[in-house]
Design brief:
Elements (H helix, E strand, L loop, with lengths): L13 H18 L1 H22 L1 H7 L3 H10 L14 H7 L3 H10 L18 H7 L3 H9 L28 H8 L2 H9 L14 H6 L4 H16 L18 H7 L3 H11 E7 L2 E6 L13 H7 L14 H36 L3 E3 L13 E3 L2 H4 L3 H29 L8
Antiparallel strand pairs: 1-2, 3-4
Protein name: Transient receptor potential cation channel subfamily V member 6
GO molecular function, one term: metal ion binding
Keywords: ANK repeat, Calcium, Calcium channel, Calcium transport, Calmodulin-binding, Cell membrane, Ion channel, Ion transport, Membrane, Metal-binding, Phosphoprotein, Repeat, Transmembrane, Transmembrane helix, Transport
Length: about 425
């Protein structure tokens, strides 16, 4: 029976035991990661509620008890800058529970709370304005903005706001992107009126349009996408908002394709559609293939779909006009390319087979014990293999076979290295 040595044990296999234990611990964390993360969040939320109930000020902000807050302020028995279990201020608590009256009183008493951010690793950078816009509390948003809340500076970079399989939401980092993902046009319009920058990008380089592409509520995301494009058209000096790439070089349109977001992709394709004429049930339509066709684009949508590991992206190939484009490319380039390769491969196999059939052999004249023994052939020596015109013809075939093998190897290596080089022409 084998034995695992613990770190404190002594013996020649101690290092191997520690390694196995480490691998086993990593495997357990991998298998139980999602459950552990959910349990950790539950524990933190319970700790947060416990801390709120223990603090009279935080509890009053939660319950919108304005009179209790006024009494504590008058008696100087509270610290307006105290923080809860996850680094939240009393204003965060009031905003979280949509308590406008309590929030207004706190803002008037301590205006500096407006731009105070949460400090824990989970919610780092989140301000009260982040919470207010997500809750679609227009009145609270307006009150915070009137008190000088910073719109473009704060960035929510905590773990729960990052794009990860552990997290249920990804709203970006900026306040305006939070409002866009929440889906409130009134809040978005209010923020822009107070100077919110519609071209802000998070640490991944994603603009608000990128972030909308990644939202699960696709119908609401499409409507908000149109709203931001309308604001973008009003300021053409800095270029189109939907042409800004993220850190991976993907525009919102390409990201929709790579993510397999068919609803958003079709929505964006409708914006690229140009109707030439209509005659009863017949309509002539042109589509802008910019970013889709691989011609002249180092990172086209077709190439991204072919190379991505996301299977959902393959569904884009069934949508108009991508399916028409793929069919056209196959008929014009792919099929002839395949037929030519197939023809050359058949000819190569014929040449290879003929060289094998007519390889240089001679009768074995030794070790023959009886005249009825079967005839056995052996390989001719190199000096005897290429003497006749037939041998020269076979030599040409052998050279073709070797060169053909090298060409096939090069083609296979290129297809493995650049799998989309044949598909995207």
């Amino acid at each position: 029976m084998g034995m695992l040595l613990l770190p404190g044990d002594r013996g020649g296999g101690g290092g191997g035991g520690v390694l196995l234990l480490g691998l086993w611990a990593a495997l357990r964390r991998k298998l139980q990661g999602e459950k552990s993360w959910a349990r950790k969040l539950d524990e933190i939320n319970l700790l947060q509620q416990k801390r709120i109930w223990e603090s009279p000020l935080l509890l009053a902000a939660k319950e919108n008890d304005v009179s209790a807050i006024q009494k504590m302020l008058a008696s100087h028995s509270c610290d307006l800058h105290e923080r809860g279990a996850v680094g939240e201020t009393v204003l965060h608590v009031a905003a979280l529970y949509n308590n406008l009256e309590a929030a207004q009183l706190l803002i008037d008493s301590a205006p500096e709370l407006v731009n105070e951010a949460m400090t824990s690793e989970l919610y780092k950078g989140e301000t009260a304005l982040h919470i207010a816009v997500v809750n679609k509390n227009v009145n609270l948003v307006k009150a915070l903005l009137e008190k000088g809340a910073d719109i473009n500076g704060p960035r929510a970079t905590g773990y729960v706001f990052r794009r990860s399989s552990d997290n249920l939401i990804y709203f970006g980092q900026h306040i305006l992107s939070f409002a866009a993902c929440a889906g409130s046009e009134a809040v978005v319009q209010l923020l822009i009126e107070y100077g919110a920058d519609i071209r802000v990008q998070d640490s991944l380089g994603n603009t608000i349009l990128h972030i909308l592409v990644l939202q699960p509520n696709k119908a609401a995301a499409c409507q908000m996408y149109n709203l931001f494009l309308s604001y973008s058209k009003q300021d053409q000096k800095q270029g189109d908002l939907d042409s800004i790439p993220n850190n991976e070089g993907l525009t919102p349109f390409k990201l929709a394709g790579v993510e397999g977001n068919t609803m958003m992709f079709q929505h964006l394709m409708q914006r690229r559609k140009h109707i030439q004429w209509t005659f009863g049930p017949v309509t002539s339509t042109l589509y802008d293939l910019t970013e889709i066709d691989s011609w002249g684009d180092d990172q086209s949508l077709l190439e991204l779909i072919v190379t991505t590991k996301n299977r959902e992206a393959r569904r884009i190939l069934d949508l108009t006009p991508v399916n028409e484009l793929v069919s056209l490319k196959w008929n014009k380039y792919g099929r002839p390319y395949f037929c030519v390769l197939a023809l050359f491969y058949v000819l190569y196999m014929i040449c290879f087979t003929m060289c094998c059939v007519y390889r240089p052999l001679k009768h074995r004249s030794f070790n023959k014990t009886h005249e009825r023994d079967n005839t056995i052939y052996i390989q001719k020596a190199l000096q005897e293999a290429y003497l006749t015109p037939e041998d020269d013809l076979r030599l040409v075939g052998e050279l073709i076979t070797v060169i053909g093998a090298i060409v096939i190897l090069i083609l296979e290596v290129r297809e493995v290295t650049f799998p989309s080089s044949v598909f995207c022409v």
